[in-house]
């Protein structure tokens, strides 16, 4: 297939936009959307020191590449990499992350479970089994990431989460009825470095393509302890449903943001319809429908009389 | 199978409770839960005049039967039936609803699209096709129901919605990202008669069984214009997922209530952990995990030393 914007070979078909895109136009579209996301959330401003949380996988490597490409020449913005060594033998070798960071010309810092907590994930699994390893690891990793980024003077932590990750997270919180987490506001908290997610509105497969195009080598293996059955289940349900209703992942992303903003509307917005006098929330749908029907019928009558 | 509570034959297996129940124990359990729902929401109190919105189908007929059985002898509570004649030839014959109401010894009132709006649903479909008939009908029916119940002096409108209906509604609003509808508060509004949904925490199949047991004859046909493809899709997704995670429908019901209550938490709840000093939301999960690990390791050491 050819690119919908030029004559070159297309590398991807975006089902939701109906467009085939070549490397150049895909890249322009991709980076444009990531920049728009950053602008919308006012995520980056002059003086920022951005710690990119690197796992060495496609998403975080692509975020590092993207941020360097867009903000790398800005003297008022600093970018560096930060990787957590959970202590999983044969996986997530920090030296691989160092190599990616080096290729992007940024410094890379490592913090390890062993040094910080005195225990590695391998040891935790040995003690506790691997049933809850993901939730243990998640809690500890989030804490060390925040503490170490703060120590290094970071003002933002950039995460690789893509649209699929975000939509899945909203959906998981919904399906377990976790209103507290859905409504939790994200106002600034002392000691807590704000997270930014430049790719949060970009589908997983496009982030994967972007990484394939621009990152020479990234970690492709999954964590040996990872078997988050619930997320895998939600991912499948969501991918299926999204196939039939292609804007669903975006709707979930928007929903997640709006619930957090907590713009709780209330019934004071209810007023009386000036025509029928009934209580209505916003526009009176009854009168709209009836007017519309009246119009249709009148037009038909006129047609018949002419 | 035998009832888990006595020796009689079971009529249903509740997967979520693990119990087989006979007619008597099923009825007791069913009505107990509906009563609990009413108490929790403070839905019925002395002086109430309850209009039961009757379609003549299983859910609304069962609600009428239930309310009559529980509150029928209370002199301070009045119950009557209210049915809407949308004007669909050969479907929802008001006289069938009258028969059910009569068998329960309550008055039945009818309001019709024809009288109220000067047009029937058959005529609307003739003008507009049946693509949006459900949403036209929904808007008009809600309006006429409220206006007529108010005219009749009702203080509450009882609806037949069951757990499946409620969970599907929350899910539909989630999947289309409708935060406004999810967060909309339900404070009292002048002219708007509050809805009560006694069966909102009871699965559809149990309401169907209850209706089979106690209602002689109810409308079993679906509306000829009904083809709400989105709800059917969501119903299937939800039933599948709920089979694997049996508390999901309850979680969605709870979520819907909590979002409406709008108890927006905020990050002021964040404090510093007294042990590690990191910002935490509630309990410090890091310290909990580390303490737990320390305990496990110490116990193992002691075991080895003994």
Keywords:
five-stranded parallel beta sheet, 12% strand
Describe this structure in words.
The structure is a homodimer of 306-residue chains. Chain A has 306 residues and is α/β, with parallel strands linked by helices. Chain A contains twelve helices and nine strands. Chain A has helices at residues 23-41, 58-71, 94-103, 113-117, 121-128, 133-151, 163-175, 179-183, 204-214, 229-244, 248-261, 285-305, and strands at 12-14, 19-21, 49-54, 78-85, 108-112, 156-158, 195-196, 270-272, 279-281. In chain A, the strands form three sheets. A five-stranded parallel beta sheet of chain A has the order 5-4-3-6-7. In chain A, strands 1-2 form a two-stranded antiparallel sheet. In chain A, helix 2 (58-71) packs across helix 9 and helix 7 (163-175) packs across helix 10. The longest helix of chain A has 21 residues, at 285-305. At the A-B interface, helix 5, helix 6, helix 7, helix 8 and helix 10 of A face helix 5, helix 6, helix 7, helix 8 and helix 10 of B.
Walk me through the topology:
The structure is a homodimer of 306-residue chains.
Chain A: E1 12-14, E2 19-21, H1 23-41, E3 49-54, H2 58-71, E4 78-85, H3 94-103, E5 108-112, H4 113-117, H5 121-128, H6 133-151, E6 156-158, H7 163-175, H8 179-183, E7 195-196, H9 204-214, H10 229-244, H11 248-261, E8 270-272, E9 279-281, H12 285-305
Parallel strand pairs in A: 3-4, 3-6, 4-5, 6-7
Antiparallel strand pairs in A: 1-2, 8-9
Helix pairs in contact in A: 2-9, 7-10, 7-11
């Amino acid at each position: 297939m050819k690119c919908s914007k030029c004559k070159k070979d297309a590398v991807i078909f975006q089902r939701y936009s109906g467009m085939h895109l070549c490397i150049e136009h895909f890249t322009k579209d991709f980076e444009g959307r990531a920049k728009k996301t950053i602008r919308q959330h006012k995520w980056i401003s002059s003086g920022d020191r951005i710690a990119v949380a690197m796992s060495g996988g496609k998403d975080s490597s692509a975020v590092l590449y993207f941020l360097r490409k867009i903000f790398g020449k800005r003297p008022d913005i600093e970018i560096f990499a930060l990787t957590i060594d959970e202590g999983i033998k044969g996986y997530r070798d920090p030296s691989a992350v160092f190599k990616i960071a080096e290729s992007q010309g940024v410094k890379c810092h490592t913090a390890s479970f062993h040094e910080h907590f005195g225990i590695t994930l391998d040891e935790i699994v040995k003690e506790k089994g691997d049933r809850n390893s993901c939730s243990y690891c998640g809690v500890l990793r989030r804490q060390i990431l925040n503490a170490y980024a703060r120590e290094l003077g970071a003002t933002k932590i950039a995460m690789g989460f893509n649209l699929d990750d975000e939509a899945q997270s909203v959906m998981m919180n919904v399906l377990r009825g976790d209103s507290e987490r859905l409504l939790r506001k994200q106002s600034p908290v002392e000691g807590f470095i704000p997270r930014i997610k430049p790719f949060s509105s970009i589908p997983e497969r496009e982030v994967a393509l972007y990484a394939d195009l621009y990152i020479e080598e990234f970690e492709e293996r999954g964590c040996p302890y990872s078997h988050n059955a619930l997320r895998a289940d939600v991912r499948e349900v969501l991918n299926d449903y999204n196939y039939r209703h292609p804007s669903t992942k975006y709707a979930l992303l928007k929903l997640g943001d709006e619930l957090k903003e907590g713009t709780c509307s209330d019934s004071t917005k209810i007023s009386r319809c000036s025509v029928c006098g009934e209580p209505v929330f916003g526009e009176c749908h009854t009168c709209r429908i009836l007017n519309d029907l009246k119009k249709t019928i009148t037009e038909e009558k006129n047609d018949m009389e002419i």
